[in-house]
Design a protein that fits this description.
Blueprint: E1 5-8, E2 21-23, E3 37-39, E4 52-53, E5 68-70, E6 77-79, E7 82-87, E8 98-106, E9 111-120, E10 124-125, E11 127-132, E12 139-143, E13 146-147, E14 152-159, E15 164-171, E16 179-191, E17 212-213, E18 220-222, E19 225-230, E20 241-249, E21 254-263, E22 267-275, E23 282-290, E24 295-302, E25 307-315, E26 323-333, E27 349-350, E28 365-368
Parallel strand pairs: 1-28
Antiparallel strand pairs: 2-3, 4-16, 5-8, 6-7, 7-16, 8-15, 9-14, 9-16, 10-13, 11-12, 11-15, 17-20, 18-19, 19-26, 20-25, 21-24, 21-26, 22-23, 22-25, 27-28
Length: 377
């Protein structure tokens, strides 16, 4: 084929904050519904995370330093590769006795996964907190497991909106009977990366692809943001959606959905991570109130299933009057890196007619990265 035209395509913590939450799957009536939230205490195996480990000596192979205990008659000690301590009865509060690690630096904008194995020789409840080490003892992640003689694995996740030095504290007082408390395999891992990025073109620097939207929307990139007018008169949140498909999630792995958004009026939307096909099971569904100020939102969840056909979907319908939405810096981080997005561009050789005039020119287009004419053989 000769003469073809070449084109370039182109701790103590008497004041508690609420536990972080995760979302159970919810079957949807008609299309989509708000997911029911449950506490994010998961007694299950967790997948490994390649992010930075902040815990020193979380396995207690020979000693417990720099960990320490207070409020117990005998200090904690390493026993058989675990940290164990006898906790007396009669303590009023959980924080009257604890095992503590100080000097943990948490970074603003980072996502963390908190994991540990724990047991008690008799049934006992504890608090497992990542918190400030001084007043007001703000809790960034707080779990409240009920322990048994069986060593059990627990995990939770959270994100930070400030940089601070914190502590990990296992508050073990406040139980009616004396017991032996044991810990092992403590981990607090995370960082500003928060894992691999699962979305493509979340900053809309490359246009709108591969984002999609319902037929009543006409988004366009304006000033580096994806903006669109949402029509009035819709009834349900899912009557107008903008999203991205081909999202994969791994069971037991924590993810952080973050984005910047503004609206021309105060309005509520739903930020969902869910199946892209019926029954549209939701792993995350967060009611989010937007304002005229571009605001950053960050939501953390732990997947409770392996998802191969998932999506991020912003449900933005249900408003009586029309309004304008702008999105930017949409990110879903966690797990392993997905395959590089490759748009479907069709065949390399293209023609725009069904036939040629016998004596006319025979031209076609070749999709290539070359910057000069390409000659076929």
């Amino acid at each position: 084929m000769a003469g073809l035209l070449a084109h370039v395509m182109t701790e103590r913590n008497p004041v508690k904050r609420p536990l972080r939450r995760w979302h159970r799957r919810a079957l949807l009536a008609g299309s989509l519904a708000v997911a029911v939230t449950l506490t994010s205490l998961i007694a299950a195996n967790a997948n490994a995370d390649d992010s930075t480990e902040l815990v020193t000596n979380g396995t207690f192979d020979s000693a417990i330093a720099p960990w320490f205990s207070y409020g117990t008659t005998v200090p904690a000690a390493a026993t058989g590769g675990q940290l164990c301590v006898d906790v007396q009865a009669g303590l009023v509060n959980r924080f009257d006795a604890a095992v503590v690690l100080n000097g943990v630096t948490l970074q603003s904008g980072a996502t963390y996964v908190f994991k540990f194995d724990a047991s008690a020789s008799a049934p006992a409840g504890i608090n497992a907190n990542v918190q400030l080490g001084d007043a007001p003892f703000t809790t960034f992640e707080g779990l409240a497991p009920s322990l048994s003689p069986t060593m059990t694995h627990f995990t939770g996740s959270f994100s930070m909106d400030t940089t601070t030095t914190a502590q990990i504290t296992f508050q073990v007082g406040g139980n009616a009977a004396p017991y032996t408390f044991c810990l092992d395999n403590i981990s607090l891992a995370g960082g500003s990366s928060g894992g691999a990025e699962q979305l493509t073109n979340g900053g809309f620097d490359a246009g709108t692809a591969p984002w999609w939207w319902t037929g009543n929307l006409a988004p366009a990139v304006t000033g580096g943001q994806l903006c669109m007018t949402i029509p009035g008169g819709t009834v349900n949140p899912w009557d107008a959606i903008v999203g991205q498909n081909d999202v994969k999630l791994s069971n037991g792995v924590s993810y952080a959905l973050s984005f910047d958004a503004s609206a021309t009026k105060n309005v509520g939307v739903l930020a969902n991570v869910q199946l892209a096909v019926d029954p549209f099971t939701q792993q995350l569904s967060k009611p989010t109130t937007l304002s005229t100020t571009l605001t950053h939102f960050n939501y953390v969840f732990t997947a409770d299933a392996d998802i191969t056909v998932g999506q991020v979907a912003f449900q933005i319908g249900g408003s009586t009057d029309p309004w304008t939405l702008c999105l930017d810096n949409v990110s879903l981080k966690g797990g392993v890196a997905p395959p590089v997005y490759a748009p479907e561009t069709g065949p390399r050789v293209r023609v725009n007619q069904v036939g040629y005039v016998p004596n006319g020119p025979k031209n076609a287009t070749v999709v290539t990265t070359a910057t000069t004419a390409v000659r076929g053989s």
